[in-house]
Each structure stands twice: as structure tokens, then as C-alpha cells.
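Teaching assistant's notes for section 4

Start the section by putting this record on the projector. Ask students to predict, before seeing the second block, whether Band 7 domain-containing protein will look compact or extended. Collect guesses on the board.
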Amino acid sequence: MGNTNCIIGGCIDQANVGVVECWGRFKHVAEPGCHFFNPLAGQWLAGVLSTRINSDDAFYELPNRREQIQAYVFYVVRALVPMMTLDALFEQKGEVAKSVLEELEKVMGAYGYSIEHILMVDIIPDSSVRKAMNEINAGKAS
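Reveal the predicted structure now:
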């Protein structure tokens, strides 16, 4: 019987680093370039992070970054919106966006993320609320 080697290669693009694990535990960060891993020895490339993210915790604690950012946005919106009237909400949607941005910067900044801008496109109330608003506006006009 001869020697059997099972080596798997992986290339990490520039501006990224690889998270290398050995038997499911963090081993080291791999710099950009080509790397070889031996799965028979438990080594593998668990994932790739942008070098703009300066925390290794971001890989393990934020596996679903998009969903977690969205959850923080909903959390802040749900905390602010019930305290406002609908008219005030339309007038102050910039303030709501600013509050969301501040909360995201605080939470995600700990992981090395930089949130630069929040775009609040539109506020769409429930159809029953829109109907009631239209009836009120129609009553004011007559």
C-alpha cells in the first residue's frame, strides 16, 4: 500500500482573509493567496472575511449578518414608532433613520462593521390605516 494524501487547496482573494479551523475549532487566520488544507488532519477553510472587518468574532458570532442587521433595524423601529403619531412619523422619518444608524453603528461597530448610511425609502401603513386616513382627509375637504 502506498501513501494516500488528501490535500485540498483554496485561494483567498486580496482584501480578504480566511478563517482556518482544525477539527471544528479556530486555528488561525490565513492571509490572501493560495493555501492547502489536509481534511484528513481536520483542517479546512471555514470561511472568508473581508479585511474591512477587523474582528474574528464577526465570523463566529454573526453567521447571518444580513438577517442580524435586519433584526436590529426592526428592533429600533418597533421601539420608536409606537411612541409617535402617524403624522409625526412621516415628518420625522429622518430622525428614525438616524436612530437606526446610531444603534447599528454601536452594535455592529464592535465587530468591525461600519454602517455609513441608512436610507428610509417610504413608510407604508397598514391598508386599514390608509383607508381611515383617506376618510379623514375626505371629511376635512368637504
